[in-house]
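Note to self: keep these together.
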Amino acid sequence: MVIIIVIILLQELNRLRSAALALGFYELLEATAKLLDRECTMLPATAHPDAALQMTHAANFLRHSELACDASRLILPMQTNFAGGTASTAAADS
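Structure:
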């Protein structure tokens, strides 16, 4: 269930980023990253651990100017493995 929500969130973020780039509204990328950071800190203790990881991953992508301003790249879900206690970033190539 969490994976489906993450995929939908990232699809919408990619649409928002694409529109912002098309209109030259680069400030929206940083504002969205700040919003994701704030929401991450507001998550309840009962939230799935992947929620904070995915929101932080998306916020960092939006702040990275080379990645965020390249319309050919997509924000992809970060691959996580809670059983092993590690997390690794998925390639952002489309």
